[in-house]
Amino acid sequence: MSPTKEFSLAPFDLVLFGGTGDLAMRKLLPAMYFRHYEEQLPDDGRIICVARSAMSTEEFKQEMERTVRQHVESMYDETAWASFCDRILYLSIDITDQAQYQQLVEVLGEVPDRVRVFYLSTAPGLFSRICDGVAKAGLVTENSRVALEKPLGRDLASAVAINDELAEVFTEAQIYRIDHYLGKETVQNLMALRFGNYLFEPIWRREHISDIQITIAEQLGVESRAGYYDHTGAMRDMVQNHLLQLLVILAMEPPVSIHPDAVRDEKIKILRSLKPLSGRDVLDSTVRGQYSDGTVNGKPVIAYRDSDGVAPNSFTETFVALKAEIDSWRWQGVPFFLRTGKSLQDRRTEIVINFRSVPHSIFDMPRVPNRLIIRLQPEEIIKFQIFAKGRGDEMRLQSVDLDLDFNQAFKKRQMIAYERLLLDIIRGNQTLFNHRDEVTAAWGWIDPIIQSWEQYQVEPIPYAAGTWGPPASSALIAKHNCGWLEECP
Ligand code: NAP
Fold first, then answer.
1. CATH fold of the domain at 182-414+443-487
2. Which CATH number applies to 12-149?
3. Which regions of the chain are under pLDDT 70?
4. Which atom of ligand 1 sits closest to the CA of residue 51?
5. Quick check: is 242 catalytic?
6. Which of 56, 91, 189, 303 lies in disulfide reach of 293, CB 3.0 to 4.6 Å?
7. Burial class (CB in 10 A: 0-12, 13-18, 19+), 153
8. Partners of residue 46 on adjacent β-strands
9. Nearest-CA residue for atom 12 of ligand 1
């Protein structure tokens, strides 16, 4: 099998640290299978899964049959699956024990000139140990790359420390910090929409846009992640990375080219122009919530504090809504409302851009703004709400949607985010990965908010599972004469 020219990749070794973990089994290995199935991997690309569990490669493949296969059912093919499994090697290594890296030396040393990717899909506490381990074992070559899963630290100081440790082993050009939202087709389409169409640029600014809302709503509760989540909360888990990344892509200036450095330069500028939120301002501009018991999708949900692994008096937030502002000519005075939460009424990731209303309505109807709605999850849709005359005698305007449904528009299968990201790492394209300065700037904005919550002892407001969060979230946006999409006419 040889890759199609458009996608041809150099031979590679992908070392998956945490190869038996949830992320590897549910996302990373399926993503590589899909690329393999579509014949976009070179024949000599290997995937080396590393974890402590004592298993042979054959036993690991049986484990994949049990766990990974169910996630590739839509494109399962016996021959493709068998040849994909031929790419897999499993090594039982405790990454805290330097002597055990010798096994990797033996496997990777066979072909030292290949692209080598160290993918750290383990608990973040092990990241620096792995970097140190591969460096001491002499495994870091010029063609090596390291990919890291979020979260990168829990505050500015810890993020700086992790980045410093990484920098001792890898150059910035070798480091791929993952925010898987950036791998989603719709997020890339946001750039295509903004910078591939002349239409939007003149109106993409304060004169024409009244406010922007970004929602990442989950119906799932804390589930099995309680141990991690209770020490993290929604602000660190979702706002610091995914929500700020979406804001940045919406707000950035047109880059001079699609070159990774050009795109990252513009992203960093936006993060640095976020108006600082600290002290008492935080009380006015943010809402913290925590779900109590309720019903989601007709099923009873127990309160966050009653979940296994959560402290009974936990003050961790499972919901955040906030107003961000950008100090720039383009965005002065335009509020960016961000919200995210668990156990909410609906599951959706959605961006709503509210344009200004007509200055004076000649029709017998309230002045309602045009809206651009970009939905990333569960389906990928871009919708533009305009007004047209409804059918009939009367001159009555009705809202109609100009819809772009990507499934209908493009016949090609929609890739999952990790397919794109993994191939970009192997190709050496950093456009969709975060630069160290982005991480620093994002934490630099988030830290004072969390510190103010602590200083003023802002407790999370309870909200019933299955709702849209505490009423204070609606009040926050109503202060600016706006409403969340589900509250609008
Ligand atoms: P996980 O299920 O707990 O898996 C951890 C992996 O690390 C396992 O393969 C484990 O295997 C291995 N491991 C632990 N200690 C080790 C050691 N000393 N030596 C060698 N291997 C060791 O974690 P996960 O959910 O896959 O998450 C992995 C990373 O991705 C985390 O940083 C997480 O925050 C991030 N992430 C996960 C998701 C997700 O959906 N799961 C989403 C976004 C980000 P053994 O026990 O066999 O050693």
1. Dihydrodipicolinate Reductase; domain 2 (3.30.360)
2. 3.40.50.720
3. 1-7, 489
4. 21
5. yes
6. 303
7. buried
8. 13
9. 18
